[in-house]
Amino acid sequence: MTPAELVDAAEATYGRLGVTVERFAAFLATRELSQARPDLVLACACLDRAPRALAYFEEHLLAPVGARLARVHGSQVADEVVGRLRETLYLAAPGREARLASYAGRGDLRGWLEVVAVREAHKVRRREVRGHDDADILESLPDDDDLELRQMKTQHRAELAQAFREALDRATPRSRLLLRQRYLDGLTFDEIAGLHNVHRITVMRWMARTEKDLLLEIQHALSARLGLATREVADLVEDARSRLDLSLRGLLADGAAR
User: Fold this and answer.
1) Exposure pattern of 196-212 as b/e (b: 16+ CB <10 Å)?
2) Contact at 8 Å (CB) between 112 and 64?
3) Whose CB has fewer CB within 10 Å in the chain, the N or C terminal residue?
């Protein structure tokens, strides 16, 4: 959809928001997305402090989230969280951007707000229990981008798992053997080197190349299947890299590499 079409779609859903096509196009240009969504128009309008946008956000997004928090954590925690969000979502504190600016449009805005609110509620509860100040608690929790990535991972979990399986199926027999020895059998580089009668440095090079090729195959599979933007695919693949040992161990144990 073009910026003009997105603005029209957003106003059909939310009413007139006071965002021009030119303003939204400039806002959209700061984000690398394969498919933008009308929620971004609402976010843009709220960051611009457009009265109708803020009223809609307050009534249809923030208030329901606050009500759910009250049922889980009690009204006192919910009121504090909603108050904090009103202070930080639209207005930038010195040296920091407004919190809503971190919404990148990967998932819907309501889901993003819910995970941000839950994170804030945990900060409040943990401070009450431990007596930590905000800075301590902030360091112990993932940032908003991580939460949005978590939402995207949940949405595409099946596709990511399938991409892993396909990449493993396309690996060469030697690569699959190396992966099985390293991740399923738990052999060290020295032990693998002994089995192949090569130096451990050679094994390390083989493994580095094998893992790189595997991640590239996963990236290509995700790009083709999901049509995501380069940045979004890169985020998923980087997360896959951090959990490569666990993912491969499960697939190899299930016989996916046979």
Assistant:
1) eeeeeeebeebbeebbe
2) no
3) C
The first and second tokens of residue 72, run together, are 């889980």
Mind listing the pLDDT tens digit for each residue in 87-138? 888 887 666 788 888 887 777 888 888 888 888 887 777 665 544 443 443 3
Residue 31 CB partners (closer than 8 Å, separation 6+):
40, 104, 105
Q: Name the residue among 41, 62, 59 with its Cα closest to residue 50.
A: 41
Which pTM was predicted? 0.51
Cα three-residue angle 148-218-103, rounded to 5 degrees: 15
Give the span between the Cα atoms of 198 and 190, in whole angstroms. Answer: 9
Q: What is the distance between the alpha carbons of residues 27 and 40, in angstroms, rounded to a whole number? A: 9
